[in-house]
Amino acid sequence: MLTLTKTAAEQIQKLKTQSNDASPYLRVAVLGGGCEGNTYRMAFENTLYDGDKQFESQGVTMVVDPQSMAMISGVTIDFANGLDGSYFTFNNPNAHHSCGCGKSFS
């Protein structure tokens, strides 16, 4: 299961509106890379693939592929505004280590 905070969902809806994107899904995935070995990726998408899991949170439908699901089940996605910028954060109970910027984990 994936969860969005209200702030994250509002930012996602704002980005969809600004980009005039009508895609019905927000794909959340894990890719290899970053200083800790794995990075998060989010993108608007029209396509569902075999094995995708769907989750709805705060009015946003998210999809996750089976490989990513094993690493991000239980994640809460938030959005932060601060002096160092604005960005999505991932509270991942499965992560053993995270880098300082929070964009990479193992």
Main sheet: which strands, in order across? 4-5-2-3-8
- Report the average pLDDT across residues: 87
Assign a percent range to the helix content: 10-25%
| The named CATH superfamily | HesB-like domain
Low-confidence parts lasting 5 or more residues at pLDDT below 50? none
Provide the CATH architecture.
Answer: Sandwich
**Largest β-sheet summary:** 5 strands, mixed
Concise structural overview:
With 106 residues, this protein is α/β, with parallel strands linked by helices. The chain has a single domain, classed as HesB-like domain (Hypothetical Protein Aq_1857, Chain: A).
List the helices and strands and how they pair.
Layout: E1 3-4, H1 6-19, E2 25-32, E3 38-45, E4 53-57, E5 60-64, H2 66-72, E6 76-82, E7 85-91, E8 104-105
Parallel strand pairs: 1-6, 2-5
Antiparallel strand pairs: 2-3, 3-8, 4-5, 6-7
Please tell me about this protein's structure.
This protein has 106 residues and is α/β, with parallel strands linked by helices. The chain has a single domain (3-95), classed as HesB-like domain (Hypothetical Protein Aq_1857, Chain: A). The protein is built from two helices and eight strands, in the order E-H-E-E-E-E-H-E-E-E. The protein has helices spanning 6-19, 66-72; strands at 3-4, 25-32, 38-45, 53-57, 60-64, 76-82, 85-91, 104-105. The chain has a five-stranded mixed beta sheet. It has a three-stranded mixed beta sheet with strand order 1-6-7. The chain is globular and about 30 Å long.
